[in-house]
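Late entry, written up from scratch paper. The run itself happened at the end of the previous shift, but nothing got recorded in the book at the time, so transcribing now.
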Amino acid sequence: MIKKLVARVRGKVQGVGYRFFVQHQAALLGLKGVARNQLDGSVEVILEGEEEKLRKILRLLHIGPPLSRVISVEHSFHEASGEFIDIEVE
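Output as recorded:
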């Protein structure tokens, strides 16, 4: 079943390649969506795809790339909207 994952990642996640890590991992899993920096220093991740694959990337969001330090990942699942055609970094 196709779902949407909305996550807010906090910690040392800006300026360390976190969004590009998300982009790469999402592309490998065939997910579509966006990863974008927020003014409060967090990264917002919105992805759509098969629920099993979203759960896989959710585990990866807790790890991040080598230079990052993830403190928390708040997330929720929703019905997919089909608004994304690729995985983008903003």
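The chain has a mean pLDDT of 97.
(Scratch paper discarded after transcription.)
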